[in-house]
Amino acid sequence: MSTDAVDKDKRRFLTLATSVVGAVGAGFVAVPFLASWMPSERAKNAGAPVEVDISKMVEGQLVTVEWQSKPVWILKRSKETLDNLPKNDDRLRDPHSENTNQQPPYAQNEDRSRKPEISVLVGICTHLGCSPTYRPDIAPADLGDDWLGGFFCPCHSSRFDLAGRVFQGVPAPSNLVVPSHYYVTDTRILIGEDGGAA
């Protein structure tokens, strides 16, 4: 056997072995690098839908949950509350929710909800991002005789009714946002997805 043939075989083997080891090494480097581009579990959970059990809620109760690092209010409204909503219409900036960026199509109604008795709102004022307070009381001294319950922003005095509709003459430019949501069952709401059909 000639020395040229032995050298070529060794050379081919060493080239192949080096290529394999290099490819494996590149894989060990590439996998963690590419994995670092993926969002963390915490980041995934921050934007994930949130399921809420409303079976124990009583009329007038407001429950706050966190979704996408924002407070989301779920309010169980009484028949009286629902009957009072139209009484505010002439004092509201957008009483018929015509600004379609503020709610999904299925909540573009008088109640701004899928079910009239349950309101789902992002609890952030549309002026500068403060969180309004829940003021269900009727005609309190500090809000006036025509106050029928709603949300009051202590930062700059913006006012919203119990459907999250903004009053005229306040700094907030638009209604509170209704997030996408749907009823998984009669007593469970999934916030963050619309469930397909309205």
Overview of this protein structure:
This protein is of the alpha+beta class. The chain folds into two domains: 1-38; 44-191, Rieske Iron-sulfur Protein. The chain contains three helices and nine strands, in the order H-H-E-E-E-H-E-E-E-E-E-E. It has helices at residues 3-35, 41-47, 79-84; strands at residues 50-53, 62-67, 70-76, 118-122, 133-135, 150-152, 159-161, 181-185, 188-191. The strands form three sheets. A three-stranded antiparallel β-sheet has the order 1-9-8, with no helix packed on it. The longest helix has 33 residues, at 3-35. The radius of gyration is 29 Å and the shape is elongated. The model has no long low-confidence stretch (mean pLDDT 85).
How are the SSEs ordered, and which strands pair?
Layout: H1 3-35, H2 41-47, E1 50-53, E2 62-67, E3 70-76, H3 79-84, E4 118-122, E5 133-135, E6 150-152, E7 159-161, E8 181-185, E9 188-191
Antiparallel strand pairs: 1-9, 2-3, 3-4, 5-6, 6-7, 8-9
